[in-house]
Amino acid sequence: MSPSSAxxxxxxxxxxxxxxxxxxxxxxxxxxxPAGFERAFGDPIFGYAWAADPIWESFKKSVDPDCxxxxxxxxxxxxxxxxxxxxxxxxxxxxxxxxxxxxxxxASGWPAERWIRSRRAHxxxxxxxxKRLQDFLLTKRIQAVAPDLLPAWQTRPSxxxxxxxxxxxxxxxxxxxxxxxxxxxxxITRVGKAHRMGxxxxxxxxxxxxxxxxxxxxxxxxxxxxxxxxxxxxxxCPVGALSSSGHDKEKCxxxxxxxxxxxxxxxxxxxxxxxxxxxxxxxxxxxxxxKLPKAGSVAGG
Length: 301
Ligand code: SF4
Ligand code: SF4
Hints:
Layout: H1 9-24, E1 45-50, H2 55-62, H3 70-77, E2 88-95, H4 98-106, H5 113-139, E3 144-145, E4 155-158, E5 162-165, H6 169-175, E6 180-181, E7 187-188, E8 195-202, H7 223-227, H8 232-236, E9 242-243, E10 246-247, H9 249-266
Antiparallel strand pairs: 1-2, 2-8, 3-8, 4-5, 6-7, 9-10
Helix pairs in contact: 1-5, 4-5
One iron/sulfur cluster binds next to helix 7 and helix 8.
C-alpha cells in the first residue's frame, strides 16, 4: 500500500468498530441460553493508545515486573518489529447486557444465571472478536497481535499482587483513556465496570484517546478513594474478599471454585461453569462511572 493510498487513523478505527459491532450482533456473541440466541455482551466501547507512551513501562510496577509492552508483544509475533512509535493499541470493552446486569443486581450470595452464561461465553466471544479484527486487518495488509494470545502469556503467583499476568487488558484500557480502577480492581469506564475487555497491538496509526485523568490518578472514579464514601462492593462480596486493603484474589478465587456446585445444581446445562461478579452489580459504578465529587470535597477512604 503506497503512503498516499494508506487509510487514515480514523478510517481504520471506524472499520474496526464497524467490524466489531457486526461480529457482536451474531452467533459469536451468543450466551448459550437454551431458549435461543441471546447476546452475551452489549454495545462495545473503544479506546486507542500509542505504543511509545511511557505509561507502558510504568506497568512493570503495577502489573508485573516482566509484563509486556506493546512493542515487546508485537516483536514476539513479528520480527523485526516496527519501532514502538509506529505501533498502536486498540482496547475494546464489552459491557454486560442490561438484562444480565438487572438479573445480577437482584442476586445475593450467589450469582445470577445470566451472569454465569456470559461469563462462560466471554473467552469465546473475546477470542472470536479478536480473530475477526486480526483477519479483517490482514485484508488491509495491516498486522495485529493479541498479547494475551501469545504463547508467552501467562498468569503466575506474584509476591506483590498474589496473582499477576504478562498483559493486562484493564491496564491497557487505563492507557487508552477508558477509565480508572475501583476498590475491587475493576476498571470503571463510562459504561461501568461490569464488562469484559480485549486488546490488540496494531502496526497502523490509530486515533489515540486522550486520558482525561493524570497517570498517577488511577483511582479517580472510585467513590471510596475520591470522596471516602461508598464501599458498596465490599458489602456485596459474600466472602469478605474486598476490604479497605483492596481485592484478596485468593479468597475470591476460592469462592469462584465453590460456585461450581451451586451452578451445576441450579442450571444443569451450565455444569462446569463458575463465577461470581456480585461486586460488579447493585453498586454505583456497575453500569456507569459515578459522578466525580465537587472540587474541595474530602478525599480518603
Ligand atoms: S462500588 Fe463504590 S467503592 Fe466499590 S469500586 Fe465502585 S465506587 Fe468504588
Ligand atoms: S467476584 Fe465475588 S468473591 Fe470475588 S471479590 Fe467480587 S463479590 Fe467477592
